[in-house]
Amino acid sequence: MLRAVGFEDDDFKKPQIGIASTASDLTPCNMHIGELAEHASKGANEAGGKAVNFSTITVSDGISMGTKGMRYSLVSREVIADSIETVVAAEGFDGLVAIGGCDKSMPGAMIAIGRLNRPSVFVYGGSILPGIHKEQPIDIVSVFEAVGKHARGDIDDSELKEIESCAIPGPGSCGGMYTANSMASAIEALGMSLPGSSAQLAISKDKRIDCEQAGKATMNLIQKGICPRDIMTRKAFENAITTGIALGGSTNIILHLLAIAHAAGVSVSIDDFAEIGARIPVLCDVKPFGRYNMSHLIRIGGIQPLMKMLLDRGLLHGDCLTVTGKTLAENLKDVGPYPADQDIVLPWDKPFKTNSHLRILKGNLAPGGAVGKITGKEGLHFKGTAKVYESEEDALQGILRGDVEKGNIVVIRNEGPVGGPGMREMLSPTSAVAGRGLIQDVALITDGRFSGGSHGFDVGHITPEAANGGPIGVLKDGDEIEIDAVKNSINVNLPEGELEERMRNFKGSGCPEKFGVLAKYAKLVSSASLGAITDANL
Fold first, then answer.
1. Which of 34, 418, 492, 536 has a CA that sits 20 to 30 A from residue 526's CA?
2. Is 451 known to be catalytic?
3. What domain range is 368 assigned to?
């Protein structure tokens, strides 16, 4: 059977390197990955291995966003992980190169790598170039926010179509420090990608070289007997968390790093993000809350000079092993500083925020924890009255209709891992809030999650979720909610005993799906505070 697919006599003596491709025409994030896989195969073969290509699925968050299809996004992370694990283990591959583009293909591949623990390298498919509208760079989030501007009357049909038509100019993952670029950076800091892999354009020659070098690096790992769990240690995860915070990364890095750590047998909790975040500033002026795209960061050297800055200040563990076979400190030894005239990565003494924008909040609304993405631009404290919606669709329509007013806290529930099921991202509602000019005046909380493109006073991952009987399920219109991003608290202010009384009479609705992949997912999935992992042993 192997002869039939191209093996020759000498190939049977070589280590077999699986090349896991997430190529598809579904999304620009992955449309070029088939070609990248060819370069990874070339590298593995030139280094003395035998590359064997296979593929797995992807779904497009950006296309399914705001629809019921988005319920499958986080679920796809598990499907990708399961499929890569299944192929590599079933075929007995000696090593693996996994190439991911869209948000979930990256953690999905890394979960599989952690489970398999065979010599492996992860390759990021690369970032997209920005589109240009009225001489300004735009991206996918610009389109979602334009919908809100259109509803407010700030732009007409023609301009909305212009923005939509030019926002996505070609291959690559969404261009800000959204989930894809955040995860690519975290994986590089974790030591599981080659230096520079996270900060290369999808269309660049550098990305093709990166893929070839990944194939060769996997062979080097096989020869040295270095496996992923030798690299993905507790200290390596601390490096990933530190770098992700300094970059201003997505809330989704919490969800995904927790899941990857679980797959690698490493103990990491949401409290670690709070502890590390207390001493790490946000240093990058990047979208969605800042001015610049990933393409701008690439031009000045990517994340390597930032990591060198963190290492020199004793904030990274330099002795961590990486897929180069060298330590992090060895990889960064010859990395110079950013150009003196750049203003994308800010000076240490003038950060964007003095500590983490990723806030782990707890209180009577989230006894199991919640995650806020609060940069300080929108303030650090918000007290307002609840405007409750039972689904994302209802919330979006209410925001676009003008039902949401200054001082409201939009509550979107029944969107958690079980209640959705699938924990949809709330990019459409948060972008509608921004587009209607309410980003400074309205907060939004949910038991769902947020796109890396969301910005504003947003709190997600509220646990327990409504479907599992969490307190968010008993909120009513007009309830006073208070969020404090300094004390890291989220509470509903009710008369003494009223919350307890409401909870006595409340039972979560559970999963609305009774069969198929969503129902299976809901049966196995943990809370968001554990990374929404699917583990039969939980």
1. 492
2. yes
3. 359-530
